[in-house]
Amino acid sequence: MVVVVEEVRDESIEETVLQEGENESDFETDSEVSSTFSEDVEDDFNPLDETLYERLAALKDIVPPQTRSSIYSKYQTTSSWAWWSVQSAGTLAWWVSTSALLVGLPLALAIEDETRVVQQEKELQMQSQGQQQMLGAPQQQPQGVLPPGF
Fold first, then answer.
1. Cα angle value 78/82/87 (rounded, 5°)
2. CA–CA distance, 105 with 94 (Å, rounded to integer)
């Protein structure tokens, strides 16, 4: 995009012919200059009517193309890195959750089953001790829980 600058002459300001010894600043006052410029500004621009998109679009003319391309390349790099991070985190979460289900769930079930078996053995041992006490047999010291096969 090429911007063409063209000088526009203001018709309201007439060129005056200066006599010898007169300067252009002798005829201008601050009130005349400010009133001329303030009328133009007030008629054309109302900041309340301008949207955020229009303000950002106006920055396109202010920011040089090299800076814009640099900002855009940094934006692309950051967004691609963020996308890769989110995708990698999702993949890692999937691997961890499936591994936990495939390894952890059977392990937890095996531990629960072993606990149930040990508890049943204790109950059987207590029942046999209760029967021996009722029959009047001499008491034996419990030796602890023996695993099957020993």
1. 150
2. 16
Q: What are phi and psi of 37, to 5 degrees?
A: -75, -35
Greatest Cα pair distance, the chain, in angstroms, is 145
Q: Is 149 left (phi over 0), alpha (psi -120 to 50) or beta?
A: left
The domain spans of the chain are: 40-135
- Kindly report the three-state secondary structure assignment for every residue of 100-145: HHHHHHHHHHHHHHHHHHHHHHHHHHHHHHHHHHHHCCCCCCCCCC
Cα separation values, 116 from 38, 42, 112, 125, Å? 91, 87, 6, 14
Q: How far apart are CA 57 and CA 51, in angstroms?
A: 10
The letter for the amino acid at 75 is Y
State the chain's mean pLDDT as an integer. Answer: 80
CB proximity list for 63: less than 8 A, separation 6 or greater: 71
- Indicate the pLDDT class of residue 141, thresholds 50, 70 and 90: low
Cβ atoms of residues 129 and 142 within 8 Å: yes
**Run of H or E including 87:** helix 65-99
